[in-house]
Amino acid sequence: MPRVLLYHFCRMQLPAVVLTPAQLDRHLQRTFDLYQGKTGPAAGWDSYLDNLYPLDWYLACACLEGQSRAWEHLFAARASRADVLLVDALRARAVRLYPRDEERQDSAVTEFWSHLLVAETANSLPVLARYDGQRPLVPWLIRVFQNWHISQLRQRAGVQSLPEEDLALPLPADARAGHWHEAFCLAAREALGELTENELLILGLRLRYRMSQRDVAHLLGVHEGTVSRQTTHLRDRCLEGISRRLLDQGWTGEDLSEYILNEMGGLLLDEPRLSADRLAGLLATRGKQLPSAAAGGP
User: Fold this and answer.
1) Which of 137-146, 176-185, 232-241 is least confident?
2) DSSP one-letter code for 121
3) CA 181, 182, 185 angle in degrees (round to 5)?
4) CA–CA separation, 296 and 273 (whole Å)
């Protein structure tokens, strides 16, 4: 794709995001240099442009230029697998990395956003400046986020952290852990499929928007004790149903409830039935909407 066509294509598809031709040329050379540094000096412009994700690349470059409309597009970007917002996908990974530590989960996402534009160390690049446009942007950001925090956890445990150039690469899979994670996901989704719309709504408001039982009760027009009882009932039902399914498949781990609680938060944030759009629809059928403080969350 010639540079002039690339420029006009991106401007037509993202008219509110404006880069000058000179800025585009500068970023194109910069990201080509990144690409060539990974693939070797024999890599040429044709192969780079043939495999470029132009709109993702253009958006990342505009964010680096400080364009507010570009950042709006990025905040509204969705992870294709479950059609969830990027920020929710990042939070789901944070829940898995730091189970039942809400403060660390929030700070993990906040720290990552700050490092999109500001390098972690004097000798490193900001996260967005490492993106060469050869992969879809949102899945790439999610992977870098996860690997970056895994690297941090390894370092704190006295294990060598991942090199910066490896942060966008898949981590080696643990076959046994992968089997049980997949079995858990299937069991959890079966359990969620048995919930009523009202139960899904309470679960979604409590988890996705971090609303207190009192706030949920006020929004739905019910007594706080009702929400408390339903929350406890939901938790117990899900634990019982998922435990039964995993035990039937041969689970031999010592603490099944601990495993479920550690895995559950991330899965729920990825669950389409608990997406922001779905929860808004459930509220709308009841003639209600999210308070502005909750709706304006990250």
Assistant:
1) 176-185
2) S
3) 85
4) 20
Q: How far apart are the first and last CA of the chain?
A: 36
Question: Which residues face 79 on adjacent strands?
Answer: 84
**Are 13 and 55 a contacting pair, CB within 8 Å?**
yes
Give per-residue pLDDT as tens, 204-224. Answer: 888 778 788 889 999 999 898
pTM over 0.70, yes/no: no
Largest CA distance in the chain: 68
By the 8 A CB rule, do 3 and 28 touch? yes
d(CA 149, CA 111): 10
| Distance, CA of 172 to CA of 98 (rounded, Å) | 20
Tell me the residue type at 166. D
Which residue in 183, 192, 257 sits closest to 202, CA to CA? 192
Residues 6+ positions from 277 with CB-CB distance below 8 Å: none
d(CA 63, CA 18): 11
**What are 150's two structure tokens?**
């895994």
How distant, in Å, are the alpha carbons of 16, 155, 207 from that of 95? 34, 19, 11
The predicted pLDDT at position 58 comes to 96
Q: How many Å apart are CA 85 and CA 118, to the nearest integer?
A: 22
116 within 8 A of 128, measured Cβ to Cβ: yes
Instruction: Please state the length of the chain.
Output: 298
Separation CA 200–CA 107 (nearest Å): 27
Mean of the per-residue pLDDT values of the chain: 81
pLDDT tens digits, 90-129: 888 888 778 778 888 888 888 898 889 888 777 888 999 9
Digit-coded pLDDT (tens) for 34-56 = 999 888 888 889 889 988 999 99
